[in-house]
Design goal:
The complex is a heterodimer. Chain A is built from no helices and 11 strands. Chain A is mainly β. In chain A, 37% of the residues are buried. The model of chain A has no long low-confidence stretch (mean pLDDT 95). Helices cover 0% and strands 54% of the residues of chain B. By secondary structure, chain B is mainly β. The N and C termini of chain B lie far apart (40 Å). The chains are: A mainly beta, B mainly beta. The interface between A and B is medium-sized, with 26 and 22 residues.
Chain lengths: 114, 111
Amino acid sequence: EAGVTQFPSHSVIEKGQTVTLRCDPISGHDNLYWYRRVMGKEIKFLLHFVKESKQDESGMPNNRFLAERTGGTYSTLKVQPAELEDSGVYFCASSPLARHYEQYFGPGTRLTVT
Amino acid sequence: QQQVKKSPQSLIVQKGGIPIINCAYENTAFDYFPWYQQFPGKGPALLIAIRPDVSEKKEGRFTISFNKSAKQFSLHIMDSQPGDSATYFCAASWSSYQLTFGKGTKLSVIP
């Protein structure tokens, strides 16, 4: 069974530019989460999809972040315009409906905003 | 309060030793306490988890001890190996699904 995949693995952009991160969850996992880890800090929750619906977006830092999950499959997280404080590692995780606690993480996308 | 606090920040043990990483939480609504293991360049991997109705859970060389009254839980690694060198994250969750993480403990097991 393939794990959670994320693309790109690393992105370097300038302040003010736009970046889109992609996550492909484990096949059959209806729950999809985005988390972020800023250097030296905790991994923090951003939002949660159940299928294509946003269930909880309480962790989204501001309206420069937009997450979508087309057709309940892959998800994208767009940052527009990017700011320096957006730098960090963005993780995607997925879990099945029946065992929603068991979240499986992808390798992350390291975003560097210069 | 949502916080999960862990100690220590880093830990160095000899091969065969038993590193112990402690976490404390504040929100008594938490009902699921996983530990994640992360190797460099990889995402966190679910290692072992416990619910508050049990005081201890073992999976292979990994054990979680849970103290509900103290609002603490800890990870013990028996007969530690150099391959266990990684960053370990404690986390907590309740029925809202999102995980609240501690900061991570970097474990180094030296031969």
